[in-house]
Amino acid sequence: MSDYISKYFKTHHNQLATREQWKSEDANGKPIPWMTYSALFQLEQFDFSSADIFEWGGGFSSLYWAARCKSLNTVEHDPEWVAFVRDRHLANLTCHDIPLECYAEHIDSFTQAFDVIVVDGHIHEGMRMKCAQHALKHLKDGGLIILDNSDWLANTCAFLRSQGYNQSDYSGFGPINNYPWCTSLFHKGELKLPRKTRSPGFVPGGIQNVRD
Fold first, then answer.
1. Is residue 23 in some structural domain?
2. Domains in the chain: how many in total?
3. Domain range spanning residue 99?
4. Stated pTM of the model
5. 185 closest CA partner among 199, 204, 171, 201
6. pLDDT tens across 129-185, in order?
7. What is the rounded CA–CA span in Å between residue 81 and residue 60?
């Protein structure tokens, strides 16, 4: 079984190469967020082409979202990742170079609301809890909050649930890491992001069959 699993992740996700090269990419070398594959499969069900997105934590995820959404605002404190994102010169992507002391609060400088808010990036000093707290007043009705490494952030998850948000957990392996973890999606009431015409689509490595 272990040989099969190793072959599966190599063939359908190129996971070993992501660890060796430290690049969050799919099997075709395209950038993907550093989240679990099961969460990414779920996110691929939605059409983000009209969405305004805000994310804490820039990098390969920024390139992924920019290729799919109307506008993306990314907050990043690490100069190397700021340069990585800005050097792509993507018209719909703005990367904000923000020190940690202003990191969580930077979203308050926006008057617009967002369809999707990604809580990722810096995870120490309770930062993702602070980001989640600031995120709530900037999320559109029917919008989506994505919290990565949620298995390490039980208090942040509990806070979001206490505010009326539904939590869906997607655990398993993803790029780069050699261990499974969890990415969670939160929404309140009806999720208003449109789904793609063909959804969910075939699972990578699964049997491609049509029965209806």
1. no
2. 1
3. 31-187
4. 0.95
5. 171
6. 999 999 999 999 999 999 999 999 999 999 999 999 999 999 999 999 999 999 999
7. 9
